[in-house]
Specification:
Layout (H helix, E strand, L loop, with lengths): L2 E6 L10 H15 L6 E4 L3 E5 L5 H8 L7 E9 L2 H12 L6 E8 L8 H15 L4 E2 L6 E7 L3 E5 L3 E2 L4 E12 L5 H11 E11 L6 H15 L4 E8 L1 H10 L5 H19 L5 E2 L12 H8 L6 E2 L7 H10 L3 H4 L21 H8 L4 H11 L1 E6 L4 E5 L2
Parallel strand pairs: 5-6, 5-7, 10-11, 10-13, 11-12, 13-14
Antiparallel strand pairs: 1-3, 1-4, 2-3, 4-8, 4-9, 7-8, 12-15, 15-16
Helix pairs in contact: 3-4, 7-8, 8-9, 8-13
Length: 395
């Protein structure tokens, strides 16, 4: 008997006038993830159906498990919408299962089907009881929940369900620029931004020779993990050495991190405008380090009017680590290659910086010219879900 994967949209169903846009984007994202599989995908306003080859089932499921916008899915049996056929085929399938109790749930989308929903449940349940020995009905806690969706030409029967990633399909929100360091937090922030439908591009601040090429490769590997949930991530490699060295030469040591972050935000805004992005995304978690106190965030944030999204702001470290392990970025993040945010950390960074002091210290050097040069020299690595990387000029 033919099996199909039946996808349920979940949060997408809350959309009204633009629901078709969300469903269409999900369809295109699934189509892209399964481009190397022999599948046929069809959709309607409430469901999506994937016909597949049995030998490729595990490959297809792996692709589906990396697509945002799916609440739940089932590997369902496709049965002609004929009462006797459905009864016999369902019993045939259930005889392969081991269970003592069951419950029947029917959804009748085809209102022309002669048996109503409230009549179908006991009718089908009675047939199952008559043809399978030593079982009984349990409407509260059954071993197996027998679900049947009755549609015009074909109906769908399933007993198992799997949860998808939820969220919105990537691409239903505009582009955002992710500050991607080599740490634990920022890849998790990128994953959570993707989950809300944001198409992300990553920005890595590099300070050669103080940082290493291994540190850059680490960030590229993190990008490859994130690209599993989308089609492409452009990684912008920002040559930050000159700005960072100038800061540590001209600015009091306790304010260096504050000024450095303010410079980063200015660069992020310029890159965002070039790439027509609408937000800056980072992995800041409130109170975790000196630059992430509310006072520090306030002072640093003053250099940009662009929205700054902090997906992990209210998570503790253990919660962030748990997500990092689930998306397979944790082991890469703990590799011992320092980024530019950790190599020059002063012994006593200011926890509650003063905005007027920050502005005063920045007047000691021509940061506008340095930022302009840095943005012009930024390079791009294009990372796709084919695991390929390609250096190119900043678009």
């Amino acid at each position: 008997m033919e099996r199909v994967i039946l996808i349920k949209y979940g949060e997408l169903t809350t959309k009204k006038g633009n629901r078709n846009f969300f469903v269409r984007t999900l369809y295109e994202n699934i189509k892209h993830k399964l481009k190397d599989c022999h599948v046929t995908i069809s959709k309607d306003i409430s469901r999506m159906y994937i016909e597949f080859e049995e030998s490729e089932l595990s490959k297809v499921l792996d692709g589906i498990n990396h697509v945002f916008g799916i609440h739940m899915y089932h590997v369902a049996y496709k049965i002609p919408t004929d009462l006797e056929t459905m009864k016999e085929e369902i019993v045939k399938i259930l005889k392969r299962e081991k269970f003592k109790t069951f419950k029947v749930e029917t959804k009748r989308s085809d209102k022309n089907f002669p048996v109503k929903t409230l009549e179908m449940n006991p009718l089908l349940g009675s047939h199952i009881l008559k043809n399978i020995n030593d079982i009984k009905v349990d409407v509260h806690n059954p071993d197996i929940l027998v679900r049947l969706e009755i549609r015009e030409n074909y109906s769908y029967f399933y007993i198992q369900y799997y949860y998808g990633l939820g969220g919105y399909p990537v691409g239903t929100q505009p582009r955002g620029m992710l500050m991607l360091s080599g740490g634990i937090d920022s890849p998790v922030a990128g994953f959570l931004a993707l989950k809300r439908g944001i198409k992300i591009e990553a920005v890595y601040f590099e300070a050669l020779p103080h940082t290493s090429l291994e540190a850059r490769n680490k960030v590229m590997e993190l990008s490859k993990k994130l690209v599993n949930y989308t089609d492409e991530i452009k990684l912008h490699v920002v040559p930050f050495t000159k700005i960072q060295e100038t800061i540590y030469k001209e600015v009091p040591s306790n304010y260096c991190i504050t000024i450095m972050r303010r410079m980063m935000y200015r660069i992020m805004e310029q890159l965002a405008r070039k790439r027509k992005a609408f937000a800056i995304i980072n992995g800041e978690s409130i109170g975790q380090v000196a630059s992430q106190t509310l006072t520090s965030m306030y002072v640093i944030n003053q250099v940009t009017n662009m929205p700054v999204i902090r997906p992990v702001a209210c998570l503790d470290k253990l919660e962030i680590i748990d997500i990092a392990k689930k998306i397979d970025t944790y082991d890469i993040s703990i590799l011992p290659y320092e980024d530019c945010c950790t190599i020059f950390v002063p012994k006593h960074p200011v926890i509650n910086p003063n905005l007027e002091d920050a502005i005063k210290f920045e007047k000691k050097f021509n940061f506008e010219k340095l930022i302009e040069e840095t943005v012009d020299q930024t390079q791009v690595i294009s990372i796709t879900d084919q695991k390929t990387c390609d250096y190119q000029e900043l678009l």
